[in-house]
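Hi, here's the filled form for the chain we discussed.

Project: internal
Contact: R.S.
Residues: 66
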Amino acid sequence: MMNNKLDSLSVGLLITINITMVQGLEIQTNKLNHSFFKAEITIIQQEKKYQKNEQPPVPKKDGTSR
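And the returned structure, exactly as it came back:
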């Protein structure tokens, strides 16, 4: 009878530990995704800033650009 109680407690403890670990991994994944999102926004903002600062091509007399 004692072994059954210990087995049940062990299984319960393992389930609790696994749930806690999964929740921790979800939190870390969310933090990582947020960091990627912020990095992507920064890159897009830098690209837009570069495009604003870039000079448009100067047309030549023959209709082509340099």
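Let me know if anything looks off before we file it.
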